[in-house]
Design goal:
The structure holds 2 protein chains of 2 kinds. Chain A is built from 4 helices and 14 strands. By secondary structure, chain A is an alpha+beta fold. The relative contact order of chain A is 0.21. The C terminus of chain A is likely disordered. Chain B is mainly beta. Chain B has one domain: Deoxyuridine triphosphatase (dUTPase) (Deoxyuridine 5'-Triphosphate Nucleotidohydrolase, Chain A), CATH 2.70.40.10. In chain B, about 10% of the residues lie in helices and about 40% in strands. In chain B, the strands form 4 sheets. Chain B has a 5-stranded antiparallel beta sheet with strand order 2-3-14-9-11. The longest helix of chain B has 10 residues. The chains are: A alpha+beta, B mainly beta. The interface between A and B is large, with 46 and 48 residues. Strand 1 of chain A pairs parallel with strand 15 of chain B, so a sheet runs across the interface.
Chain lengths: ~200, ~170
Protein backbone atom coordinates (compact mmCIF):
# COMPACT_ATOMS: atom_id res chain seq x y z
CA UNK A 1 0.00 0.00 0.00
CA UNK A 2 1.11 3.55 -0.66
CA UNK A 3 1.07 5.94 2.28
CA UNK A 4 -1.26 8.90 2.17
CA UNK A 5 0.11 12.36 2.85
CA UNK A 6 -1.50 12.28 6.30
CA UNK A 7 0.24 9.02 7.08
CA UNK A 8 3.60 10.34 5.86
CA UNK A 9 3.19 13.26 8.28
CA UNK A 10 2.27 10.89 11.14
CA UNK A 11 5.26 8.66 10.45
CA UNK A 12 7.64 11.64 10.27
CA UNK A 13 6.34 12.74 13.69
CA UNK A 14 6.84 9.31 15.24
CA UNK A 15 10.27 8.88 13.67
CA UNK A 16 9.55 6.03 11.24
CA UNK A 17 10.16 8.30 8.25
CA UNK A 18 12.99 10.83 8.06
CA UNK A 19 12.36 14.01 6.06
CA UNK A 20 14.63 16.83 7.15
CA UNK A 21 13.84 19.66 6.89
CA UNK A 22 10.10 18.89 6.87
CA UNK A 23 7.34 21.34 6.00
CA UNK A 24 3.66 20.39 6.08
CA UNK A 25 2.86 22.55 3.06
CA UNK A 26 4.94 20.19 0.91
CA UNK A 27 2.72 17.19 1.72
CA UNK A 28 0.63 15.90 -1.22
CA UNK A 29 -2.22 13.35 -1.13
CA UNK A 30 0.29 10.50 -1.65
CA UNK A 31 3.79 12.02 -1.50
CA UNK A 32 6.11 14.71 -0.19
CA UNK A 33 7.67 17.39 -2.43
CA UNK A 34 11.45 17.63 -2.11
CA UNK A 35 13.59 20.50 -3.35
CA UNK A 36 16.67 20.95 -5.54
CA UNK A 37 20.02 21.63 -3.87
CA UNK A 38 22.37 24.23 -5.35
CA UNK A 39 25.06 21.87 -6.63
CA UNK A 40 25.14 19.88 -9.87
CA UNK A 41 27.81 17.45 -11.05
CA UNK A 42 28.45 16.65 -14.70
CA UNK A 43 30.73 13.95 -16.00
CA UNK A 44 33.78 15.12 -17.92
CA UNK A 45 33.58 14.63 -21.70
CA UNK A 46 34.36 11.25 -23.18
CA UNK A 47 33.24 7.71 -22.58
CA UNK A 48 32.28 6.36 -19.24
CA UNK A 49 33.93 3.04 -18.48
CA UNK A 50 31.88 1.34 -15.79
CA UNK A 51 35.05 -0.19 -14.36
CA UNK A 52 36.72 3.17 -13.76
CA UNK A 53 35.81 6.19 -11.67
CA UNK A 54 34.79 8.99 -14.01
CA UNK A 55 35.78 12.53 -12.98
CA UNK A 56 33.00 15.08 -12.59
CA UNK A 57 32.83 18.85 -12.69
CA UNK A 58 30.89 20.78 -10.01
CA UNK A 59 28.39 23.48 -11.00
CA UNK A 60 26.91 25.88 -8.45
CA UNK A 61 23.43 27.18 -9.18
CA UNK A 62 23.43 30.90 -8.43
CA UNK A 63 20.45 33.15 -7.73
CA UNK A 64 19.92 33.60 -11.49
CA UNK A 65 19.35 29.86 -11.86
CA UNK A 66 21.07 27.54 -14.30
CA UNK A 67 20.08 26.49 -17.82
CA UNK A 68 20.33 22.76 -18.48
CA UNK A 69 21.60 21.77 -21.92
CA UNK A 70 19.26 19.30 -23.63
CA UNK A 71 20.55 15.74 -23.77
CA UNK A 72 23.22 16.28 -21.12
CA UNK A 73 23.16 14.35 -17.85
CA UNK A 74 23.33 16.39 -14.65
CA UNK A 75 23.62 14.75 -11.24
CA UNK A 76 21.70 16.80 -8.71
CA UNK A 77 20.78 16.39 -5.08
CA UNK A 78 17.80 16.86 -2.84
CA UNK A 79 18.13 19.55 -0.17
CA UNK A 80 16.34 17.18 2.19
CA UNK A 81 17.61 14.06 3.90
CA UNK A 82 14.93 11.45 3.24
CA UNK A 83 14.46 7.78 4.04
CA UNK A 84 12.88 5.22 6.29
CA UNK A 85 13.68 2.05 8.20
CA UNK A 86 10.02 0.98 7.94
CA UNK A 87 8.72 1.95 4.49
CA UNK A 88 10.09 1.65 0.95
CA UNK A 89 10.64 4.97 -0.82
CA UNK A 90 10.12 5.61 -4.51
CA UNK A 91 10.35 8.99 -6.15
CA UNK A 92 9.09 10.81 -9.19
CA UNK A 93 9.32 14.20 -10.81
CA UNK A 94 6.63 16.65 -9.84
CA UNK A 95 4.13 16.74 -12.65
CA UNK A 96 4.90 20.43 -13.31
CA UNK A 97 8.58 19.58 -13.73
CA UNK A 98 8.08 16.55 -15.97
CA UNK A 99 5.84 18.65 -18.23
CA UNK A 100 8.73 21.02 -18.87
CA UNK A 101 10.41 18.14 -20.70
CA UNK A 102 12.67 16.75 -18.03
CA UNK A 103 13.49 13.45 -16.37
CA UNK A 104 14.69 13.49 -12.76
CA UNK A 105 15.56 9.81 -12.77
CA UNK A 106 16.45 7.45 -15.58
CA UNK A 107 14.24 4.43 -14.92
CA UNK A 108 15.54 4.19 -11.34
CA UNK A 109 12.75 5.38 -9.03
CA UNK A 110 13.02 2.59 -6.47
CA UNK A 111 14.84 3.27 -3.22
CA UNK A 112 15.88 0.83 -0.51
CA UNK A 113 14.40 0.54 2.92
CA UNK A 114 17.02 1.82 5.36
CA UNK A 115 18.70 4.29 2.99
CA UNK A 116 18.61 7.68 4.68
CA UNK A 117 20.37 10.52 2.95
CA UNK A 118 20.22 13.15 0.26
CA UNK A 119 19.04 11.58 -2.97
CA UNK A 120 21.07 11.97 -6.13
CA UNK A 121 18.77 12.88 -9.02
CA UNK A 122 19.58 12.24 -12.67
CA UNK A 123 18.43 15.34 -14.51
CA UNK A 124 17.98 14.94 -18.25
CA UNK A 125 16.27 17.78 -20.08
CA UNK A 126 14.69 17.57 -23.53
CA UNK A 127 14.56 21.38 -23.77
CA UNK A 128 16.88 24.11 -22.52
CA UNK A 129 15.40 24.53 -19.06
CA UNK A 130 16.29 27.14 -16.46
CA UNK A 131 16.15 25.74 -12.94
CA UNK A 132 16.57 27.42 -9.59
CA UNK A 133 18.07 26.05 -6.38
CA UNK A 134 15.43 25.40 -3.74
CA UNK A 135 12.61 24.78 -6.20
CA UNK A 136 10.35 21.81 -5.46
CA UNK A 137 11.47 19.37 -8.14
CA UNK A 138 10.29 15.92 -7.18
CA UNK A 139 8.13 13.91 -4.84
CA UNK A 140 8.90 10.99 -2.54
CA UNK A 141 6.38 8.24 -1.98
CA UNK A 142 6.47 5.59 0.74
CA UNK A 143 5.18 2.03 0.54
CA UNK A 144 4.25 -0.52 3.16
CA UNK A 145 6.23 -3.76 2.96
CA UNK A 146 5.45 -7.39 3.46
CA UNK A 147 8.14 -9.62 4.98
CA UNK A 148 11.15 -9.25 7.27
CA UNK A 149 13.18 -6.11 6.79
CA UNK A 150 16.94 -6.10 6.10
CA UNK A 151 18.09 -2.51 6.12
CA UNK A 152 20.10 -1.01 3.27
CA UNK A 153 23.83 -1.01 3.90
CA UNK A 154 25.06 -0.12 0.44
CA UNK A 155 27.64 2.11 -1.09
CA UNK A 156 25.49 5.26 -1.17
CA UNK A 157 24.36 5.17 2.49
CA UNK A 158 24.27 8.54 4.23
CA UNK A 159 24.84 10.46 1.00
CA UNK A 160 25.14 14.24 1.22
CA UNK A 161 25.11 16.19 -2.04
CA UNK A 162 25.14 14.64 -5.50
CA UNK A 163 27.13 11.43 -5.85
CA UNK A 164 28.48 10.16 -9.14
CA UNK A 165 28.14 6.50 -9.98
CA UNK A 166 30.17 4.12 -7.86
CA UNK A 167 29.50 1.24 -10.21
CA UNK A 168 33.26 0.72 -10.58
CA UNK A 169 33.28 -0.50 -6.96
CA UNK A 170 31.14 -3.44 -8.06
CA UNK A 171 34.00 -4.54 -10.27
CA UNK A 172 36.67 -3.94 -7.59
CA UNK A 173 34.78 -6.30 -5.28
CA UNK A 174 34.34 -8.94 -7.95
CA UNK A 175 38.04 -8.87 -8.83
CA UNK A 176 38.87 -10.40 -5.47
CA UNK A 177 35.91 -12.79 -5.53
CA UNK A 178 36.12 -14.19 -9.04
CA UNK A 179 38.19 -13.79 -12.16
CA UNK A 180 36.68 -11.55 -14.87
CA UNK A 181 34.83 -13.89 -17.24
CA UNK A 182 36.59 -12.84 -20.46
CA UNK A 183 40.04 -13.59 -18.96
CA UNK A 184 38.84 -17.03 -18.08
CA UNK A 185 37.67 -17.67 -21.64
CA UNK A 186 40.95 -16.36 -23.08
CA UNK A 187 42.90 -18.57 -20.66
CA UNK A 188 40.96 -21.65 -21.66
CA UNK A 189 41.42 -20.84 -25.33
CA UNK A 190 45.17 -20.48 -24.79
CA UNK A 191 45.35 -23.81 -23.05
CA UNK A 192 43.40 -25.48 -25.84
CA UNK A 193 45.36 -23.59 -28.49
CA UNK A 194 48.80 -24.17 -29.97
CA UNK A 195 50.30 -27.33 -28.51
CA UNK A 196 53.91 -27.49 -27.47
CA UNK B 1 -1.40 -3.48 -2.64
CA UNK B 2 -1.98 -3.19 -6.33
CA UNK B 3 -5.47 -3.77 -7.70
CA UNK B 4 -6.06 -6.69 -10.03
CA UNK B 5 -7.99 -6.21 -13.24
CA UNK B 6 -11.01 -7.86 -11.67
CA UNK B 7 -10.83 -5.45 -8.72
CA UNK B 8 -10.46 -2.45 -11.06
CA UNK B 9 -13.63 -3.59 -12.84
CA UNK B 10 -15.46 -4.01 -9.53
CA UNK B 11 -14.45 -0.54 -8.37
CA UNK B 12 -15.43 1.06 -11.68
CA UNK B 13 -18.91 -0.27 -10.98
CA UNK B 14 -18.95 0.99 -7.38
CA UNK B 15 -17.60 4.37 -8.51
CA UNK B 16 -14.38 4.13 -6.52
CA UNK B 17 -12.36 4.06 -9.76
CA UNK B 18 -13.39 6.35 -12.62
CA UNK B 19 -12.59 5.41 -16.22
CA UNK B 20 -14.56 7.20 -18.96
CA UNK B 21 -15.11 5.88 -21.54
CA UNK B 22 -14.77 2.42 -20.04
CA UNK B 23 -14.36 -0.80 -22.02
CA UNK B 24 -13.82 -4.11 -20.24
CA UNK B 25 -11.68 -5.37 -23.15
CA UNK B 26 -8.99 -2.89 -22.02
CA UNK B 27 -8.66 -4.55 -18.59
CA UNK B 28 -5.28 -6.18 -17.99
CA UNK B 29 -4.30 -8.54 -15.14
CA UNK B 30 -3.34 -5.56 -12.95
CA UNK B 31 -3.93 -2.43 -15.03
CA UNK B 32 -6.18 -0.79 -17.59
CA UNK B 33 -5.08 0.20 -21.10
CA UNK B 34 -5.53 3.87 -21.99
CA UNK B 35 -5.37 5.60 -25.36
CA UNK B 36 -3.64 8.56 -26.98
CA UNK B 37 -5.78 11.66 -27.51
CA UNK B 38 -5.54 13.81 -30.63
CA UNK B 39 -4.17 17.05 -29.16
CA UNK B 40 -0.40 17.61 -29.02
CA UNK B 41 1.53 20.60 -27.67
CA UNK B 42 5.19 21.57 -27.99
CA UNK B 43 7.06 24.41 -26.31
CA UNK B 44 7.95 27.19 -28.71
CA UNK B 45 10.56 29.05 -26.73
CA UNK B 46 14.37 28.88 -26.75
CA UNK B 47 14.61 28.49 -22.98
CA UNK B 48 11.94 26.99 -20.78
CA UNK B 49 12.26 29.11 -17.63
CA UNK B 50 10.22 27.86 -14.70
CA UNK B 51 9.53 31.47 -13.68
CA UNK B 52 8.46 32.74 -17.13
CA UNK B 53 5.27 32.20 -19.18
CA UNK B 54 5.65 29.30 -21.63
CA UNK B 55 4.94 29.80 -25.34
CA UNK B 56 3.31 26.88 -27.07
CA UNK B 57 2.41 25.44 -30.42
CA UNK B 58 -0.56 23.07 -30.53
CA UNK B 59 -1.85 20.78 -33.21
CA UNK B 60 -4.12 17.82 -33.79
CA UNK B 61 -3.03 14.37 -34.96
CA UNK B 62 -4.83 13.64 -38.25
CA UNK B 63 -6.05 10.25 -39.53
CA UNK B 64 -2.64 9.62 -41.11
CA UNK B 65 -1.00 9.82 -37.69
CA UNK B 66 1.97 11.96 -36.76
CA UNK B 67 5.68 11.18 -36.83
CA UNK B 68 7.24 12.03 -33.48
CA UNK B 69 10.89 13.08 -33.79
CA UNK B 70 13.78 12.38 -31.43
CA UNK B 71 15.15 15.27 -29.34
CA UNK B 72 11.75 16.97 -29.48
CA UNK B 73 9.53 17.06 -26.43
CA UNK B 74 5.76 16.64 -26.89
CA UNK B 75 2.85 16.87 -24.51
CA UNK B 76 -0.09 14.61 -25.30
CA UNK B 77 -3.10 13.41 -23.36
CA UNK B 78 -5.20 10.39 -22.62
CA UNK B 79 -8.54 9.88 -24.35
CA UNK B 80 -9.94 8.63 -21.07
CA UNK B 81 -10.78 10.53 -17.94
CA UNK B 82 -9.31 8.36 -15.22
CA UNK B 83 -8.63 8.41 -11.51
CA UNK B 84 -9.04 6.71 -8.15
CA UNK B 85 -11.32 8.16 -5.48
CA UNK B 86 -9.70 6.27 -2.58
CA UNK B 87 -6.68 4.77 -4.34
CA UNK B 88 -3.58 6.26 -5.96
CA UNK B 89 -2.61 5.46 -9.53
CA UNK B 90 0.48 5.18 -11.69
CA UNK B 91 0.71 5.59 -15.45
CA UNK B 92 3.19 3.68 -17.56
CA UNK B 93 3.79 2.99 -21.21
CA UNK B 94 2.58 -0.40 -22.28
CA UNK B 95 5.22 -2.82 -23.48
CA UNK B 96 4.28 -2.50 -27.15
CA UNK B 97 4.77 1.26 -27.00
CA UNK B 98 8.04 1.07 -25.10
CA UNK B 99 9.35 -1.54 -27.53
CA UNK B 100 8.99 1.10 -30.27
CA UNK B 101 11.30 3.44 -28.35
CA UNK B 102 8.62 5.71 -26.94
CA UNK B 103 8.50 7.29 -23.49
CA UNK B 104 5.06 8.49 -22.40
CA UNK B 105 6.19 10.15 -19.19
CA UNK B 106 9.43 11.65 -17.97
CA UNK B 107 9.93 10.05 -14.55
CA UNK B 108 6.50 11.12 -13.27
CA UNK B 109 4.15 8.13 -13.09
CA UNK B 110 2.18 9.08 -9.98
CA UNK B 111 -1.49 10.01 -10.07
CA UNK B 112 -2.70 11.31 -6.72
CA UNK B 113 -5.76 9.99 -4.96
CA UNK B 114 -8.75 12.03 -6.07
CA UNK B 115 -7.19 13.31 -9.31
CA UNK B 116 -9.76 12.25 -11.91
CA UNK B 117 -8.66 13.84 -15.17
CA UNK B 118 -7.55 13.35 -18.73
CA UNK B 119 -3.85 12.83 -18.04
CA UNK B 120 -1.22 14.86 -19.82
CA UNK B 121 1.50 12.61 -21.24
CA UNK B 122 5.14 13.62 -21.69
CA UNK B 123 6.14 12.03 -24.96
CA UNK B 124 9.69 11.59 -26.25
CA UNK B 125 11.01 9.07 -28.76
CA UNK B 126 14.48 7.68 -29.39
CA UNK B 127 13.96 7.47 -33.16
CA UNK B 128 11.17 8.63 -35.48
CA UNK B 129 7.89 6.88 -34.63
CA UNK B 130 4.47 7.38 -36.22
CA UNK B 131 1.71 7.37 -33.63
CA UNK B 132 -2.02 7.56 -34.19
CA UNK B 133 -4.75 9.23 -32.16
CA UNK B 134 -6.90 6.65 -30.43
CA UNK B 135 -4.19 4.01 -30.27
CA UNK B 136 -3.55 2.20 -27.04
CA UNK B 137 -0.42 3.77 -25.62
CA UNK B 138 -0.20 3.06 -21.90
CA UNK B 139 -1.55 1.38 -18.83
CA UNK B 140 -2.73 2.75 -15.53
CA UNK B 141 -2.54 0.77 -12.31
CA UNK B 142 -4.14 1.49 -8.98
CA UNK B 143 -2.74 1.20 -5.46
CA UNK B 144 -4.55 0.95 -2.14
CA UNK B 145 -3.54 3.58 0.36
CA UNK B 146 -2.48 3.41 4.00
CA UNK B 147 -3.70 6.27 6.21
CA UNK B 148 -6.35 8.93 5.99
CA UNK B 149 -6.99 10.05 2.42
CA UNK B 150 -7.07 13.64 1.30
CA UNK B 151 -8.34 14.23 -2.19
CA UNK B 152 -6.12 15.95 -4.78
CA UNK B 153 -6.98 19.63 -5.10
CA UNK B 154 -3.96 20.76 -7.10
CA UNK B 155 -3.53 22.95 -10.14
CA UNK B 156 -4.28 20.21 -12.68
CA UNK B 157 -7.70 19.35 -11.27
CA UNK B 158 -10.30 19.35 -14.03
CA UNK B 159 -7.75 18.78 -16.83
CA UNK B 160 -9.66 17.79 -19.94
CA UNK B 161 -6.92 17.74 -22.59
CA UNK B 162 -3.22 18.65 -22.87
CA UNK B 163 -2.25 20.93 -20.00
CA UNK B 164 1.21 22.48 -20.07
CA UNK B 165 3.29 22.97 -16.96
CA UNK B 166 1.83 25.50 -14.57
CA UNK B 167 5.04 25.66 -12.58
CA UNK B 168 5.07 29.45 -12.95
CA UNK B 169 2.33 29.43 -10.28
CA UNK B 170 5.03 28.40 -7.80
CA UNK B 171 6.39 31.96 -8.23
CA UNK B 172 9.61 32.67 -6.37
CA UNK B 173 9.42 29.24 -4.78
CA UNK B 174 10.09 27.76 -8.20
Amino acid sequence: MILTGNEITNQVRNGNIVISPFSEDRVNPNSYNFTLADKLDVYEEGEIDVRKQKPTRRIHIGPEGYVLTPGRLYLASTVEVLGSDSFVPTYAARSSVARLGMFINLSAPLGDIGFIGCWTLQLLAMNSIRLYAGMPIGQMMFWQVKGNIDLYDGKYQGARGPLSSRIYQDFDQKKTALAPPEHKVLGDAAVAGPAE
Amino acid sequence: MILTGTEIDRRVHTGDVVIEPYDTTQLEPNSYGFHLGERIAVYDTPIVDVREPLKLREFTIGPEGFVFQPKQFYLGHTVERIGGITCASELYANLSTALCGVFIQTSAPLGHTGAVIRWTLEITVVHPVRLYAGMRIGKICFWETLGKNTSYSGRYNGSDSVVVSRIIEDGENA
